[in-house]
Specification:
binds 1-deoxynojirimycin, alpha/beta, 17 helices, about 550 residues, about 25% helix, about 20% strand
Length: about 550
């Protein structure tokens, strides 16, 4: 195995430039501002930043509607600022991943403008057209309730165009070799400017057959191999992290049997069942999801996460499971979105309960894969549900108790800073949590350190250890003659569990990595451990000489 695969044991932090730090007082975050905050991110111990789209865009889907792939939105600075930023990140050992949104463009993109204006335009075939309204035009909407159709008549073209997402996001005809070549060109451009890879948006749609006659569109997985081969040729340590919310059976197609397609994928199955586990204190569906997503090539990696910039999508749960999660974490219809998800931030979903927040984070950090954190969650930021759709969980970062939470000097910011209630910036901000050794921010920092020092989780193999309690999850990871054991009690009451590690002599001793509550097996060879309500433990199996016992292969 190649030791250099940095993404196998890393912590990724995602943020939007727009809402992170405004440096010039126009109320919009920008690259110079983000650059000034790099030391904050460096101090937190993160390995890579994932940036939401920042290219030129009319901004109707928060940048996921790009009108020029080769320039940045002037509100965020210049290409020069961008390169300064990637350089400054590199100096701190932080890698930069950026969103690549090539399933569709903005309808304002010159390619689409040309395509619609002239049937002989060289760009006509870059999009997907139909002379008549396809029969399935009112099916397959990604944003039900908001989006009305997947085919819209363009008056100028006199034809219908296909759009998997909103109607201002016409789909690119990704089967067209010219479009494919352009996608590689876009990747090459940003690689040249210092990025280390991409979070690829909407991958199943990028590679799907598109057209009015497609009854059962197939995925063209070979495209993924080409993307990867190109990337690896241009920059050896660059990666693609795929957004592909597909059933577990299809995952391997995205990684490729030989690990020759996507390096990483978000694990949506584990994400949804993890929230179900938090709501129900029943770990069984989570264990099943772990099992279903266990198989992957050695070089591939899961991205594990709690919340992201979209709604918490619960579409893969059963109806009863989804209802239970809604009841617990998003009971009000206004908290729900697209008939499948919850549009809140993590802290309000968990009632701001510190024990539950720690449990959720500890659990997520101990899932097989590489954790992806969302900006603001490290301080327990809240949401603003008066904002439309997903914007409620996209408010500016809260740095201090100064005006606009220290985000901007402007009176008006791109989205309002949360200023009222328990999640207002006066109460929830980085500066005050920095001063408090027991704050959530400092807890998160310690957890990140602990997670990074447990490469067993990123690289190793895991087994669920039987506890006899469906409300308790015990997982053991093994890698290079080292093991860690992670326990989580999802119940609001304590559990005393008995564990037989079946590892012989070495398994009789557990060293608590976080707080010194070690465990020695009793005469029956089992560990008897009391877990408090929502309690969790991270143990090293054996002694602290594990580093000396670690093998090279
Ligand atoms: C997935 C992104 O995460 C979401 O924010 C966006 O609206 C759609 N793709 C369309 O690009």
């Amino acid at each position: 195995m190649i030791n250099d695969l940095w993404y196998k044991n890393a912590v990724i932090y995602c943020l939007s430039v727009e809402t992170f730090q405004d440096s010039n007082g126009d109320g919009v975050g920008d690259f110079p501002g983000l650059m000034r905050r790099l030391d904050y991110l460096h101090g937190m111990g993160i390995d890579a930043i994932w940036l939401m789209p920042f290219q030129a865009s009319p901004g109707k889907d928060d940048g996921y509607d790009i009108s020029n792939y080769y320039d940045i939105d002037p509100r965020f600075g210049t290409l020069g600022d961008f390169v300064e930023f990637t350089h400054a990140a590199k100096q701190r050992g932080i890698r930069v991943l950026i969103d690549i949104v090539v399933n569709h463009t903005s309808d304002q993109h010159p390619w689409f403008q040309s395509a619609r204006s002239d049937p002989n335009s060289p760009y006509r075939d870059w999009y997907v057209w139909s002379k008549t309204k396809p029969k399935d035009a009112d099916q397959g909407m990604v944003f039900p309730g908001v989006q009305e159709s997947t085919w819209t008549l363009d008056e100028k073209a006199g034809e219908y165009y296909f759009h998997r997402f909103y109607k201002f996001q016409p789909d690119l005809n990704t089967a067209n070799p010219e479009v494919q070549a352009e996608i590689l060109k876009i990747m090459g451009f940003w690689i040249q400017l210092g990025v280390n890879g991409f979070r690829m948006d909407a991958v199943p749609f990028v590679i799907a057959d598109k057209g009015a006659d497609e009854q059962k569109p197939q995925q063209q997985y070979d495209l993924l191999r080409w993307f990867r081969a190109f990337l690896q040729w241009r920059k050896g340590d660059a990666v693609i992290l795929a957004e592909a919310n597909v059933p577990p059976k299809q995952n391997l197609q995205y990684f490729g049997d030989d690990g020759d397609r996507m390096h990483m994928m978000f694990n949506f199955q584990v994400n949804q069942t993890l929230f179900y586990a938090l709501a129900s204190a029943d770990t069984k569906p989570l264990i099943k999801a772990l099992d279903e997503t266990r198989a992957r090539p050695d070089t591939a990696q899961w991205g594990t996460f709690l919340r992201n910039h979209d709604e918490l999508d619960l579409g893969r749960l059963t109806e009863a499971q989804r209802k239970l999660v809604f009841d617990h974490f998003g009971p009000d219809p206004d908290m729900q979105l697209y008939e499948r998800g919850i549009r809140r931030r993590l802290a309000p979903m968990l009632g701001g309960d510190r024990r539950r927040l720690e449990l959720a984070y500890s659990l997520m950090l101990s899932m097989p894969g590489t954790p992806v954190l969302r900006y603001g969650d490290e301080i327990g930021m809240g949401d603003d549900l008066s904002l439309p759709e997903r914007n409620g969980a996209r408010t500016p970062m809260q740095w201090s108790d100064e005006p606009q939470g220290g985000f901007s000097r402007s009176d008006k910011t791109v989205l309002p800073v949360i200023s009222e209630g328990p999640y207002g910036f006066a109460h929830v901000n980085v500066a005050s949590q920095r001063r408090d050794p027991n704050s959530f921010l400092n807890w998160t920092e310690r957890m990140i350190r602990m997670r990074r020092e447990a490469p067993e989780i990123g690289w190793g193999a895991y087994a669920v250890v039987e506890t006899g309690e469906k409300g308790v999850l015990a997982m053991r990871y093994d890698w290079r003659n080292n093991s860690v054991l992670l326990l989580h009690n999802l119940c609001d009451y304590p559990h005393k569990i008995a564990l037989d590690l079946k590892m012989g002599e070495i398994g009789l001793r557990l060293i608590d990595i976080a707080d010194g509550g070690h465990s020695q097996a009793e005469d029956d060879g089992r560990h008897h451990i009391l877990l408090e309500p929502y309690g969790y433990r991270w143990y090293r199996v054996g002694g602290l000489d594990y580093i000396l016992r670690r093998t090279e292969i």
